[in-house]
Amino acid sequence: MLVKLENPSLLARAVEIISELVTEVRVKINEESGLSITAMDPANVAMVRFVLPKSSFSAFEAGNEVLGINLDNLKRILKRCGTTSSLTLESKETTLDINIQDRIKRNFSLSLIEVESEDKDLPTNLEFSSKVEMKSQDLVDSVEDCLVVSDSCSFIVKDGKFIVEARGLNSARSEFSSDEAKIEAENCKSRYSLEYLQKFVKASKLNETTVLRFANEHPLRVDIKNELMEISFLLAPRVETED
Asked: I need a labelling partner for 87 at 20 to 30 A (CA). Which of 116, 149, 160, 174 fits?
């Protein structure tokens, strides 16, 4: 396998984001989907899927590769890429050779590891009653507002408006009408962990808009997609419990 990226920043930023959820992943590289990572966090609360399609690469020679990678180690190497660097990945029997080319050529060798995980994908049988497409920065700001007052927030659709709200001793609330977001939704409410949302919204900065799908007390799906890559997250709801 040998693949080459002329602008490795998207891969570097995606790996940095995914590494906050999981430390070891199976990276799949094939003609059909390009480079992809699907993983579930150790607490079984969140899933992530990242795809860098074949069209994003300037060179792509691969069969059906599955590489066990420690993301922390890969992240450190990818941080050595500059704004004008190109990146070549070549798999050997027990290593992934990583070449960074700019003014000079630098070579790294990353040991491949055994990663025990099932071949999972984001479930396709979830039914979402609400879809909200909004500016990514608006979502980032809303999540950061809620972090000031709580460790969880509610996504609410009420009378055609989308609301992000956190309540504790103090409260925070952001409200969006159809002027600020595309809202195709029924009235519903679901609560989610801000610890995870804070990690997800870092990926929102990869694209101007983010799509949210959810339903009443239902998992949340977050999709960030452009012509060069796509990254999706799935987050279990935080269910209210009575003492």
From this structure: 116
Handedness of CA 157, 158, 162, 168 (dihedral sign): negative
Is the distance from CB of 212 to CB of 181 less than 8 angstroms? no
Q: What fold is seen in the domain 130-235?
A: Proliferating Cell Nuclear Antigen (3.70.10)
d(CA 133, CA 170): 28
CATH for 2-111, among 1.10.10.10, 3.10.150.10, 3.90.1640.10, 3.60.10.10?
A: 3.10.150.10
Read off the pTM: 0.94
Judged against a pLDDT cut of 70, whether residue 242 lies above it is answered with no
| Residue 192: CB atoms within 10 Å | 25
State CA 82 to chain mean position distance: 22
Any idea how long the chain is? Answer: 243
Domain boundaries for CATH 3.10.150.10 within the chain: 2-111
How far apart, in Å, are the Cα atoms of 118 and each of 2, 25, 38, 115, 236? Answer: 25, 11, 10, 9, 19
